[in-house]
Fold this sequence. Notes:
The protein is of the alpha/beta class. The chain is about 25% helix and about 25% strand. The protein has helices spanning about 15-30, 75-90, and strands at about 5-10, 40-45, 65-70, 100-105, 115, 120. The strands form 2 sheets. The protein has a 4-stranded mixed β-sheet, covered by helices on one side.
Amino acid sequence: MPTISIDIRNKYSRQFEEQLINAVYLACKQVLKLPDHDRDIRLKIHEPHLFLCPPNLTKPECFTLIQIDCFAGRSIETKRTLYRSIVKNLSLLDIPDDHIKILIRELPTENWGIRGGQAACDVNLGFDIYI
């Protein structure tokens, strides 16, 4: 049950923005082995002067920051696979791989209130977080 945020510096067409969201979502779904109904992802578009990026980028308008808040428990190998999968999917959209930054923030399940106000540690999640 990750919460995913994608921040970009460029307004694209609706179709491209949907492809961008889907590219990140599909990588997370596949690598983290999420159920089909598990979708909590948003795209935030910033004016470039309000979202600075490294000055050495060749296409600064393509800078993409992906933040994933998730339950603690995934292995370092799973995270590495996730990073590679996201970058691969976004490269198909012509976003240079060195223009993508991915940040995972892991929180213990007791720090998530879900399903009507229950602590996530008290419910059957329906998937394994220790992968």
